[in-house]
UniProtKB/TrEMBL annotation:
Keywords: DNA-binding, Membrane, Signal, Transmembrane, Transmembrane helix
InterPro entries: LytR-like, LytTR_DNA-bd_dom
Residue ranges crossing the lipid bilayer per the database entry: 157-180, 187-205, 225-246, 253-270, 276-295, 302-318, 324-343
Highest taxon listed in the record's lineage: Bacteria
GO function terms (MF aspect): DNA binding; phosphorelay response regulator activity
Secretion signal span: 1-20
Entry protein name: DNA-binding LytR/AlgR family response regulator
SMART domains in the cross-refs: LytTR (SM00850)
PANTHER family named among the record's database cross-references: STAGE 0 SPORULATION PROTEIN A HOMOLOG, TRANSCRIPTIONAL REGULATOR-RELATED
Gene3D superfamilies according to UniProt: LytTr DNA-binding domain
Pfam families for the chain: LytTR
Species this protein is from: Sphingomonas leidyi
Lineage: Bacteria, Pseudomonadati, Pseudomonadota, Alphaproteobacteria, Sphingomonadales
Domain HTH LytTR-type intervals: 366-469
Length: 478
């Protein structure tokens, strides 16, 4: 029953913080007595309740409820707490103490049911004993809620449902962009996968307060993680938009974003840090998007309109930004891009097929499939083919190189007779050979340009025969 009550109150997390300081509290000197707390020297609290680094007794006088609905005391913040109403003990969360050794940390959020008989006509004295020695960080507003609320209240689950829906969509986008990157090795798909992954993690961390009853010392880690993830998303957004629409400014834009977004760590309050990290990231991303519009880069105009719309909404409703709008931004941005990437993949595959069909009539050229598309490379311009895992590197005349989605074994059979496998990871174009030199107990083949290629012992006789080099000769002159 207590857990159901706890979750019901927590689902109202979007409205409770606004009422957290609605009660007029007094700070007192106090001690626990046999008949309830003993208080003296009370004075009004002018700003907010702050038990950080100390033991704190506070009290407030409340009127009796006007109806018979049950009430609960809801306490949320980085503190252990204990509560009394009219001297009647309501409950304890952890154990408040005068020192860190005496305190037992409680949960960040706690509810204390108030029995109907605890109320009395007229004024009712509510007393809270608080302490916070294990918070880890100093919070500008350590207590986010101190409120007496009726139970049950209507459950506001819509924001939580939207968060979960956006998180599920973003997780699907992570796998989608990850698959695209595995097939095409495109930098943009990797950045988008990172953006979706960061947003998914932030949705999970944001929901922890509603779904998990964690100890208050973990709150500093949770809030720090939220800011780090928001800042990471903002940096990735700037990197993606700049790479996509204004690539020549990529380095200075990312450097500027690191400085500007990183500076939000100096702002007071984690909600402010998070909101401004996202707002500044979107504002910086507008710059390369606008440059892309000026340069008439395809896709820049809708990207700019989307970023400008989100920026306007974020500035108009900043209190929604970290809790809800951020996930809508991430999902609304990456999901359409995922569909665009899938369509582009299909178009690229059709282009590859057409190029392969055309290549049949060009036996003097090698059809090279890479992340950039299909290219027909003259075989005479290939100096060597070097293995690179599931790909091969084609070293070409003029210092150029290409990654080709093929295996070395397959190319060895496909290339003409002037090419010879001289090492398990290298095929050389003997028409470009200059000399064969010994380097200690190893041999190397020098081509007309570029770095020399290693020659394995087992393939050295075949290479000598092909080059018509006597076994005793240590080098082949150019």
């Amino acid at each position: 029953m207590r857990r159901i009550l706890f979750l019901t109150i927590l689902l109202m997390g979007f409205v409770i913080p606004a009422r957290a300081q609605g009660i007029s509290w007094q700070a007192c000197r106090g001690a626990a007595g046999p008949a309830g707390p003993l208080l003296r020297d009370c004075h009004p609290i002018q700003d907010f309740v702050d038990p950080q680094g100390r033991e704190l007794w506070i009290r407030a006088v409340l009127g009796a409820p006007a109806d018979a609905r049950p009430r609960v005391l809801y306490v949320a913040g980085v503190a252990s707490s204990e509560a009394w109403l009219n001297g009647r003990h309501l409950g304890i969360n952890g154990r408040p103490g005068a020192t860190a050794q005496a305190e037992i940390p409680g949960r960040y959020q706690a509810i204390f049911p108030i029995r109907e008989g605890a109320w009395q006509p007229g004024g009712n004295q509510l007393v809270l004993h608080l302490s916070s020695f294990h918070g880890g960080l100093h919070f500008a507003r350590p207590m986010s809620a101190l409120a007496v609320l009726p139970y049950p209240r209507p459950q506001r689950v819509a924001p939580l449902a939207v968060t979960f829906l956006a998180a599920g969509s973003l997780l699907a986008a992570v796998f989608g962009f990850g698959a695209i990157h595995a097939m095409r090795r495109t930098g943009s798909s990797l950045i988008l996968a990172g953006m979706a992954a960061v947003a998914t993690l932030q949705a999970i961390v944001e929901s922890m307060r509603t779904l998990f009853d964690y100890s208050y010392p973990l709150h500093a880690w949770r809030m720090s993680a939220i800011w780090v993830l928001a800042a990471s998303f903002a940096l990735l957004l700037v990197a993606y938009v700049t790479t996509r629409f204004f690539p020549r400014a990529r380095a200075p834009m990312i450097g500027l974003a690191v400085g500007v977004i990183g500076a939000t760590a100096l702002l007071p309050g984690f909600d402010i840090k998070t909101a401004w990290a996202l707002i500044l990231g979107v504002a910086l991303a507008v710059v390369p998007a606008a440059a892309g519009v000026r340069l008439r880069v395809p896709g820049a105009r809708p990207a700019l309109a989307y970023l400008a719309l989100f920026l306007a909404l974020a500035l108009a409703f900043p209190e929604w930004l970290a809790d809800l709008s951020y996930f809508l931004l991430a999902a609304g941005l990456v999901l359409p891009l995922l569909m665009v990437e899938v369509v582009r993949l299909g178009r690229d595959d059709r282009g590859r097929e057409a190029a392969l069909t055309r290549a049949v009539s060009r036996p003097d050229r090698l059809t090279v499939a890479s992340a950039r598309g299909v290219e027909l490379v003259p075989i005479a311009e290939i100096l060597a083919v070097v293995g690179a895992d599931d790909y091969v590197e084609l070293r070409l005349v003029g210092g150029r190189s290409l990654l080709h989605a093929a295996r070395l074994d397959g190319l060895a059979a496909q290339l003409p007779g002037s090419f010879l496998r001289i090492h398990r990871s290298a095929i050389a174009n003997l028409a470009q050979a200059q000399r064969l030199e010994r380097d200690g107990d190893r041999w190397r083949l020098y081509l007309s340009e570029g770095a020399p290629l290693p020659v394995s012992r087992s393939r050295q006789p075949a290479l000598r025969e092909a080059l018509d080099v006597p076994p005793a000769m240590a080098a082949m002159p150019a």
